[in-house]
Amino acid sequence: MATFVAKISSMGLKKYKLGELIEVTRGATLSGQYYSTEGELIRLTLGNFNMNGGGWKTNTSKDDLYFTGNVKEEFILNKGDIITPLTEQSLGLLGTTARIPEGGKYIQSQDVALVKCKEDMIDENFCYYLISSNLVRQQLSAAAQQTKIRHTSPDKIKDCTVWIPELPTQEKIGRILTDLDSKIQLNRELNQNLPQPDHSLKVAVIRLAA
């Protein structure tokens, strides 16, 4: 352990709890009586998380995704907001991250957590990949409630331990992986047979070092 700590220190990484770096909030409880096949606002579901590599996915498994009831403004998300699931409907879902593709359209529901970065502590792009890294996902899996469908919570997410570099290095890593994901997505649209991107933070550090 001492050798490991020394190695971390030499790399310039500092140890934090995620709660020191981000705010995590649960979404609204939405009554099923207001679900609809048409409307202006769409409720987020676990089907909006891409299990194959992470990222946003349009949910095509339901036809009643619109919500016509009253919703507090705080639960209507902005473009680029980072979300992560609180319920593991499929094995491995916890720790997946996605970004909201369009502002003023999507409602944060109770199974979805909103992640807000403390800007003086952690870069938003870096945070997106950090939460979906094996380091965090393994901790979430270990702490999840052991039921048939497992659950986590904002507090359990914030309790995860991470090691991160200084903010300028975070920003560089975040830009590299964001640009890489954009290129992969563009290529995938041209060739559906391309492999999914790897969102591991370990891969990000290796790419930066190279």
Verbal overview:
The structure is a single chain. By secondary structure, this protein is an alpha+beta fold. It is about 30% helix and about 20% strand. Helix 2 (about 125-130) packs across helix 5 and helix 5 (about 165-190) crosses helix 6. The longest helix has 24 residues, at about 165-190. The protein is globular. The relative contact order is 0.18. Mean pLDDT is about 85; it is low at about 1-10.
What's the mean pLDDT score?
86
Classified in CATH, the superfamily is DNA methylase specificity domains
Fill in the CATH topology: Adenine-n6-DNA-methyltransferase TaqI, Chain A, domain 2
Structural class: alpha+beta
Number of helices: 6
Strand order, main sheet: write it out. Answer: 2-10-6-8
Note the gap between the termini.
27 Å
Helices and strands, in N-to-C order? HEEEEEEEEEEHHEHEHH
Q: Tell me, what's the shape?
A: globular
- How many E strands? 12
Q: What is Rg?
A: 18 Å
- Overall domain count: 1
Regions with little confidence, pLDDT below 50 for 5+ residues: 1-10
**Helical fraction:** 25-40%
The first-level CATH class is given as Alpha Beta
Gist?
Helices cover 31% and strands 18% of the residues. By secondary structure, the chain is an alpha+beta fold.
Characteristic key phrases:
globular, single chain, alpha+beta, four-stranded antiparallel β-sheet, 6 helices, Adenine-n6-DNA-methyltransferase TaqI, Chain A, domain 2, disordered N terminus, 210 residues, two-stranded antiparallel ribbon
